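Hey, can you fold this?
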Amino acid sequence: MRRLRLLALPALAIMFGAATACAPAVTPVEVTEETTVVDVRTPEEYAGGHLDGAVNIDVSAADFTAELAELDPSAEYVVYCQSGNRSSRAVAQMEQGGFTSVHDAGGISDAAAATGLTVVG
């Protein structure tokens, strides 16, 4: 029995360490009146729930680059999607396009936690 306990302790430590390592830290993002919050999901996803005040620009749409061209590259932006994949792609494209103040807030849950904005819709 003692041997079983000794074997169980390292296994529990590994499982606990893996569980805490998988939990991403949410970095707070200050959203002011000058900040534009951009939801880069599809219009259908946006309609199903989005952060209060967010604008929808679908990163997968053919006109995404044209939509970016209408934005002020010197303004502040917080970008999010469903899981963080599309937002990182959008942020990279924005930075390549000369945008200077863009924050990738990741998925909608992390973005809500980081910004303090509520999900509406």
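Oh, and this one too while you're at it.
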Amino acid sequence: MNGLSGTRRLASPVRLTLAGQLGTDIDGAWWPHTASVASELPELVGVLHRSLGEVVDIRVNWSAAEGQLNLDSIVTGTRLPAGVKLSRPRLMLVAGRDQCVKLLVVPCRTSVTLGGLVMRCAAGMPVEESVRNTPVFDTADRVLSVARVESARWSVQLAAQAPV
């Protein structure tokens, strides 16, 4: 069930961007409000239903044991403690009856400035020239580059599994 029996106004709207043209390594981004992705999933499915048709499958590239990538630590230049491995970007493949999208999942604790830029960049939306010359934009661009590499790697794994 897609939870589409009626429309309801959400206290916190779904933060989702989708590219105009789907089918690339990253088709957009989803920025949950909390760390509980599962609790926000029904609303995401409801929003995606319009673009994808009935959602029939969702896959993720992470396990519950993996930590989230802290995007803000990249922009501030925070160093990881010795022995701590940098997590990979979280990706979600959502398959509908009509189309599929691969979304970058922005960690909920990401700052508004960086999160907004990552969302725009993931969907291929325009960014003002004055913003393009900032460390935050450089970070968003780096995050997308790493996410695209991870997406390509993950696509190979998905192709080896049962089709979506």
